[in-house]
Amino acid sequence: MESFFKAGERGSSVGQEVRAGLTTFLAMAYIIAVNPSLLTSAGIPATAAVTATCLGAGIMTILMGLIANRPLACASGMGVNAVFAFTLTAIAGGDWHAASAVIFIEGVAILILVLCGLREAIMDAIPVSLRHAISVGLGLFIAMIGLADAGIIVADESTMVALGDIFSPTFLVGLISLLVTIVLYAMNVKGSLLLGIIIAVVAGIPLGVTQMPAGIVSGLDFSTFGAPFLTDESGVTGIAKVVTNPTLLVFAFSLMMSDFFDTMGTAMAVAKQGEFLEDDGRVKDIKPILIVDSAAAAVGGLVGASSITTFVESASGAADGGRTGLSSVVAGVLFIVAAFFSPLISVVSSAATCGALVFVGYLMMSEVTEIDWSDLLEGLPAFLIVAGVPLTYSISNGIGFGFIAYVVVAAVTGQLKKVKPLMWVAALAFLVYFLVV
After folding, report:
1. Beta strands, E only, 30-186
2. Which of 25, 70, 273, 323 is most deeply buried (CB count within 10 A of its CB)?
3. Strand 74-76 and strand 160-163: pairing?
4. What are residue 309's phi and psi, to 5 degrees?
5. Which pTM does this prediction carry?
6. Across residues 99-108, what is the average pLDDT?
7. C-beta neighbour count of 103 within 10 angstroms
8. Burial of residue 221, with CB atoms counted within 10 A of its CB: 0-12 exposed, 13-18 middle, 19 or more buried
9. Topology relative to the membrane, per the entry (predicted)?
10. Cβ atoms of residues 278 and 284 within 8 Å
């Protein structure tokens, strides 16, 4: 095991990797309940949605660990699953098979780009300052997710965002999660992020936030597997509907753009915590990560789980000591086990993960000092990424703002020579993306 994963070589141990994998799994466990709730809105049977969500996440997370050997975990992506349920299915006349086919086509297309080296080449063309900005923006985004899930920050019609109800049980669980994580980390307690989650789950029982499971064991339902090639009542396969519907093909392109850059940001965020981010902002051995992530999107469509992608919550496990793919294998196995015990796993509320996510956000802020804010070309596009990711609640949107701004500022300041050819391609692609979404 040591010769394969190289835990000792990376300053870790089997025990540390197992703990980190459990931390990552618990930080992502909410998807077991949330994703099926959205998929059922599209007409997918509830048990089939749980099976697809858990097995899809488990298989691809294990493959990420075995192939890339990095502490990254995969599951159905939030945001895309809502688009799947409420937009793609509606455009396809209520046929979730066709919606799954859109995801499948998008995944295959982006996998081809990775195998051709284009995705990695574009990442290499990104200026160093923007790479640092992506990490900072992701840190704020992760922290925002944690605070919002706990109700510590809420939407407000007058001020857009406001402090939540401090007497709300959800608020209190999130606060407990955050305080326990900070105290334990300050005391150098190993596994502080994981312990913060567990203690918050226990504290949530008397507060009514941690719901007792309705059962323990659940059955499996494979009826969504092969979704793009299954037929609806009319006898037409989902993939046939997509290739004959220009609107659905445009959505496939839009999702490809989103997936393309979401993963780039996520990989950088986790790499920062997992200590495999180089000084110039490059992620070490990025290609196998991108290959598995791209294949995961296609697999998500194939099994009817929406698009499976690398989760930014993986940074919580990396921050808790995960350095190798062994932590991913652990998280993946837990997802597969959860397919049988989903009622029990679902007791981990999103509020209980608040402390881990906010603390990871704090750790990622260190990248802000690497940006030259006195240089307009370096600073302004970086700022738009840092602000754009959390404020639009989209990794892709924030990166798009920064990329386009970089080209514009370079043009007006006479520094076009600094813009690499693929940076032009990326900026133009984002311009098209914003116009069609």
Report:
1. 74-76, 153-156, 160-163
2. 25
3. unpaired
4. -140, 165
5. 0.75
6. 95
7. 36
8. middle
9. Multi-pass membrane protein
10. yes
Tokens 């995801």, located at residue: 103
Quote the percentage of the chain above a pLDDT of 70: 99
Residues contacting 158, CB < 8 A, separation 6+: none
Tracing tokens 């037929």 back to the chain, one arrives at 231
Cα separation, 130 vs 206, in Å, equals 45
Pairwise CA distance, residues 212 & 348, whole Å: 10
- φ, ψ of residue 162 in degrees (nearest 5): -150, 170
- Pick from 101, 44, 96: nearest CA to 242: 101
Place of tokens 């992701």: 138
Please state, in angstroms and rounded to a whole number, the distance separating the CA atoms of residues 259 and 267.
12
- Residue 431 tokens, joined: 């311009």
Backbone angles phi, psi at 277, to 5 degrees: -100, 125
Q: Rounded CA gap, 404 and 41, in Å?
A: 36
The pLDDT confidence band at residue 295, using thresholds 50, 70 and 90, is: very high
Helices (H), 392-420: 395-412
In angstroms, the CA 173 to CA 372 distance is 39
Segment 175-203, tens digit of pLDDT = 999 999 999 989 988 778 778 888 999 99
Specify the residue for token string 């300050």.
186
